[in-house]
Amino acid sequence: MSSTTPAGASAGADTLLDVVSAGVDVIDLGRQLRTGMPQSPNHPQFWHTLPRRHGDMTRADGGSAANDMITTGTHVGTHIDALAHVSHNGKMYGGIDAVEAGIGGKYDQLGVHTIAPMMRRGVLLDIPALLEVEHCAGGYEITVADLEGACARQGVEVRAGDVVLVRSGWGSLFEDGTAYLGKESGVPGVSEAGAQWLAEHEVHAVGADTIAFERLAPSGGHALLPAHRVLLVEHGIYIIESMDLEALAAAGRHEFTFVLVPMNIYGATGSPVRPLAVVPA
Amino acid sequence: MSSTTPAGASAGADTLLDVVSAGVDVIDLGRQLRTGMPQSPNHPQFWHTLPRRHGDMTRADGGSAANDMITTGTHVGTHIDALAHVSHNGKMYGGIDAVEAGIGGKYDQLGVHTIAPMMRRGVLLDIPALLEVEHCAGGYEITVADLEGACARQGVEVRAGDVVLVRSGWGSLFEDGTAYLGKESGVPGVSEAGAQWLAEHEVHAVGADTIAFERLAPSGGHALLPAHRVLLVEHGIYIIESMDLEALAAAGRHEFTFVLVPMNIYGATGSPVRPLAVVPA
Amino acid sequence: MSSTTPAGASAGADTLLDVVSAGVDVIDLGRQLRTGMPQSPNHPQFWHTLPRRHGDMTRADGGSAANDMITTGTHVGTHIDALAHVSHNGKMYGGIDAVEAGIGGKYDQLGVHTIAPMMRRGVLLDIPALLEVEHCAGGYEITVADLEGACARQGVEVRAGDVVLVRSGWGSLFEDGTAYLGKESGVPGVSEAGAQWLAEHEVHAVGADTIAFERLAPSGGHALLPAHRVLLVEHGIYIIESMDLEALAAAGRHEFTFVLVPMNIYGATGSPVRPLAVVPA
Amino acid sequence: MSSTTPAGASAGADTLLDVVSAGVDVIDLGRQLRTGMPQSPNHPQFWHTLPRRHGDMTRADGGSAANDMITTGTHVGTHIDALAHVSHNGKMYGGIDAVEAGIGGKYDQLGVHTIAPMMRRGVLLDIPALLEVEHCAGGYEITVADLEGACARQGVEVRAGDVVLVRSGWGSLFEDGTAYLGKESGVPGVSEAGAQWLAEHEVHAVGADTIAFERLAPSGGHALLPAHRVLLVEHGIYIIESMDLEALAAAGRHEFTFVLVPMNIYGATGSPVRPLAVVPA
């Protein structure tokens, strides 16, 4: 989805508002939340229902209100992992004791409420464009050479503080839910080496168009997640999963303003998000 | 909450990225989602819990993942009303039949998935600053004269396409849940006349720091909601409720870039949101 | 599960309490509710989580309380279908208009709250014992001849008001979730003819050890459910699904006191249940 | 609610089935589960909604199925406390370490799945009938003298293994939700002494018509729950709360067959239940 804010009068000394008022294009990087969409079976399924529909109850003045009930995990649809999501050998990022941190039923430290809204430089690394394939194969490991090759091909560099989105093309399978999960086929993505490369570039967050960001071996499930360890536990770098990177790649935008506003759920380990790439119209 | 994106190298011809890279301040206009926060009793309560905590299950490689379960209405915390939320005399905005629209259990038309992410001019109208009170009284109707007085006092004008945030100061009662709901006291806000004034200015969306945006009479409950009718049903203007406008008012920012990214829930009548006011650092 | 109430002193003129006090054996016909158990994908998944565990919060007096959050459909685990669950050509049992009945979001008529708790004669028809197989094959239709053959073999008759449990043996696959659902294999059960036979015997309710009570064709899904129509819509006979009939069959009990207490959920279309077969010890 | 199973032909040597077939009266001791009913604010609210109503989707053969989504705590409506619900000084019943027992997110020991279905002698102790009041006052402590007085007045004795239901009459306030919760007024019930008396009689379970079984002091909330400690932690006696004892008292039945079938939720701390008093017709 892409929408355009029409140009309007400028606001004087506010340079941001000047640019925004001149019109921006928004490319939606989030998946629509629908009951039945593909998601990890480890998390409560997303369900949406209408407890009250129009026609159920009408007020004296002729008005009626319909409403919703949602039950869901937070690691469903396009979502961000808070640092509290993962521990290794009993420790979370910064050496925080992972068991102690959960006492009380909220992660006061490193919960998703500690992730500041993001408006910063985003970079797309388009791996299938580099490899000249429609999408990387199931279980394919995106290597450091691939990451560097994509930078070179695109003429972009990864800088400290960036949000780096690694496109595998696997997102094109999203509508076919079972294929997207890749239980037997595996799922493409970076693994430990790629994660190290991203961490060395001191990025702020990373994202991908797959269910678990990192490479999953064929029939391997989620038993080993070395990139999660490197990024979340060792370097405090957020991970965004199940992104829709197709429109962004099609638009050929490799640098952009990346906007992400996590839900401010106190103590949660993640949040559904709807990240945006924004560019002047 | 306010966070600063540190200045970085610019990105060439991308004027938006130039400004963002020079650093922006983000003022959070959303309430934190916490179990037990004040919310309308007409909607499913927000609940967050951890099905799995660190320590419950550890993978062979020493890793563990904690996760969440959420159940909630969509009109909880800071949230936006989709046009599908309200009907009048059986019709929604654009004359759409409200009962028919709900068949299937999703509002295909006018659901929250039809609200485009917003990045546009925001205006704060600070009524207590005009009236020289800490907050407007329960049940106080914010009049057209108040709205125009706030514009004049602040030296801002409301333009077509703006998002207008009407501060009553009532948000300072949020932490004391019962007072905030204002069941007996009523709640301040615009009513039909103020909503008409906003609609005449062709605004894109409106927001307030109260539970129902509009004035609620003492002991009157939600039985009459004329501003909802004017805005949602007659003019297709979105309503944002339970905002936190205290930091924005304290910062004295009356014009800013307003950012709002609704959850893309197919067919829902609303969505929790975390709106932002963004200004150059 | 089977438990014995030890014999105690009798209660005088209360013949029921006399028998119960003399000791009864209870055979549990319900599946345990566990997150991840096999269930129909058409219904919200059963999830259980602990928002508060011991250790999270301790009262001044040294006490603490742990608690639960559940989200679930009602047609999960062992469950009963209320008459409101199914309509045919727009009508529910008794010719009630099915669309109109749902206005308000509760089935005031024919909802699960209208099912009286059951304590009545139960009959087990053990089809694999008759056919001398471990379990009926996927997609096998249990015929009228099978039902009558089971009665003859067992020396029992089906009477008006009975609850008749048709064992296919398919319940032995419950622990292997995917096989139990039988998406490709189909699932054994009665079809229209068997349902007619049961209806002619004026039974009060029927049950089976499969997910949908009736025969599902291989790869056919739930597209055609003629037995549901015959029983629920045409005759007002309740259906109990996903029962555990293995222990009852192993015990060789073909007649017993059947106890079923549905959850009294106002307006719901079904309820998880834990039916019991009770016999004197 | 009371329903009668009509008399039928007997089943030979099955003395239980003989009695049941001769007809029994069932008195429902459970509250109907409705969205908005009074419940403790410490537990997730009961919500029921219909994701699919008749008319939303019709199969090719003319059939349609409506279904439900429920979110709820387990300590809502009429419910039973499992022994895992409460700990004291870090220990549950039998000296089990309460923190350790919750690791994994399920109480493998003492969870509600460990409560066997009950069919045993039930005794009603009708305190308002003894005291000649409509209902005990808020905050009134039901004393040992009251319990013994009720036994004497009714001519019943409490025996080992019984389920004892202590009626305070407070249940008559259930429909007026706020009064029933008794936040300011307090709630009547036994306290430590009464719980000790019940424990000395070696009862199997106890129940009451109030939200917390035991006496709550005016404005005292749930800060001190000595009867819970005595019963659940020290003696392993189950507690049933928010029962409807009005019809049973009105019927003047003080001894009966008590039937209770907890939901078999693996690892949960409690379960909604619908207990029954059953007597020969």
CATH class category name of chain A: Alpha Beta
Pattern of helices and strands of chain A: EHEEEEEEHEHEHEHEHEHEHEEE
Sheet with the most strands, sense and barrel status of chain A = 10 strands, mixed
Quaternary state of this entry equals homotetramer
Count of DSSP strands of chain A: 16
Please mark out the parts of chain A with pLDDT under 50 across 5 or more consecutive residues, or reply none. 1-12
CATH topology of chain A: Glucose Oxidase, domain 1
Number of helices of chain A: 8
Average of the residue pLDDT scores of chain A? 94
Question: How would you classify the helix and strand content of chain A by structural class?
Answer: alpha/beta
**Strands side by side in the biggest sheet of chain A:** 1-2-16-14-8-10-12-13-6-15
The named CATH superfamily of chain A = Putative cyclase
Shape of chain A from CA axes? globular
Number of discrete domains of chain A: 1
Distance between the termini of chain A: 15 Å
Pair with the biggest interface: A-B, 101 and 101 residues
The radius of gyration over CA of chain A amounts to 20 Å
- Relative helix content of chain A: 10-25%
Pfam families (chains A, B, C, D): Cyclase
Enzyme class (chains A, B, C, D): hydrolase
Organism (chains A, B, C, D): Nocardioides dokdonensis FR1436
Keywords (chains A, B, C, D): Hydrolase
